Amino acid sequence: MLRISKLTDYGTLIVTQMAATPAQVVSATELADALGLGLATVSKVLKALGRHGLVLSHRGTRGGYLLSRPPEQISIADIVDALEEQPFGLTECSAGSGTCSLETGCRIRGSWIRINAVVREALQGVSIAEMTPPPDLSNAPSPASQRVSGPGRLARNAG
Amino acid sequence: MLRISKLTDYGTLIVTQMAATPAQVVSATELADALGLGLATVSKVLKALGRHGLVLSHRGTRGGYLLSRPPEQISIADIVDALEEQPFGLTECSAGSGTCSLETGCRIRGSWIRINAVVREALQGVSIAEMTPPPDLSNAPSPASQRVSGPGRLARNAG
DNA sequence: GCAAACTGTACTAAATTGGTACTGTATTTG
DNA sequence: CAAATACAGTACCAATTTAGTACAGTTTGC
Ligand code: FES
Ligand code: FES
């Protein structure tokens, strides 16, 4: 359907939320609460992000997660890579080798690989820092607007 | 998974195949045979392409389909639009309105809409004519290489 | 009238995704 | 050291989406 998965979407939401207070440890519970998502779901996403080095985790009583890099250096493509296990590519054939018996002769495969590259660049060109304006006003509750009732992607939960 | 659906993929394959002999009526059976796909599947794709005006159909004994435009004027985006019923957009929130309760206040939505536009341009910038070299050698069986055993995307069928 | 070929719908099975539960481990705190 | 907190990892089930096919109908050409 040419969509990123919801988990990936949550990833962008979570990282964006974390970018509001960079270099600060936030627990999965806090993030889940702030975004209106289930704790288990948020944990799943954070774990994947951690495996790919986008966030650092800290266990224990006052543990939590924090971004491993400044938001300017985290792109949408990074998050996609972390949360979609399969290799990047709009078609099965162009995502890797071995799937298609006609790889050597097929010419549309080359075209798809080119298309993939352009799409990927688009995702790489957008950083998390660009997703929301920088929090100049440290007092203004900039992410609070997201705390009202949770994102609509969760309409099911919100019932 | 950030993939187009297989049906859409078949669409590109079918239209590319038809572009090899433009302005010529080809039956769904012939296309299915040439590409190693099931007839019902090919019919389903062609019907959708017809509904969106990409191919013209002709019923009856010697009927079939033909491209409604020269291959240069058919883009990958056209095929995606025809075969993915849902509106274009990488995330649910950015594909349309009404899905999310935070639309008005949400700032990452704007970013996603921008990303969508770039991705869409990438798909619009590639025409079917670019997918394979133009058939200068009318004798050379350029599409024949695809007739060997069917695309690997169908490994299940071929197995 | 018969056969070829498209039209349209409906259904079933498979694959993927989404969400959650449960058990384990590390760290802080007192 | 014990208790509480929070991450780690796995495994599982439900919901959704996709893929493929079947079937009954209609149009056209011979
Ligand atoms: S690489 Fe699979 S059909 Fe071209
Ligand atoms: S528009 Fe849905 S979370 Fe932003």
TrEMBL record, chains A, B:
Any one Gene Ontology cellular component term annotated for this protein: cytosol
Domain HTH crp-type: from-to ranges: 19-69
Classification via InterPro entries: ArsR-like_HTH, HTH_CRP, SUF_FeS_clus_asmbl_reg, TR_Rrf2-type_CS, Tscrpt_reg_Rrf2, WH-like_DNA-bd_sf, WH_DNA-bd_sf
Gene3D superfamilies noted in UniProt: Winged helix-like DNA-binding domain superfamily/Winged helix DNA-binding domain
Signal sequence range: none
Region of interest: Disordered: 130-159
MF annotations from Gene Ontology: DNA binding; DNA-binding transcription factor activity
Biased amino acid composition, Polar residues: 139-148
Cited NCBIfam families: rrf2_super (TIGR00738), suf_reg_Xantho (TIGR02944)
Protein name per its UniProtKB record: BadM/Rrf2 family transcriptional regulator
Species name: Thauera linaloolentis (strain DSM 12138 / JCM 21573 / CCUG 41526 / CIP 105981 / IAM 15112 / NBRC 102519 / 47Lol)
Lineage: Bacteria, Pseudomonadati, Pseudomonadota, Betaproteobacteria, Rhodocyclales
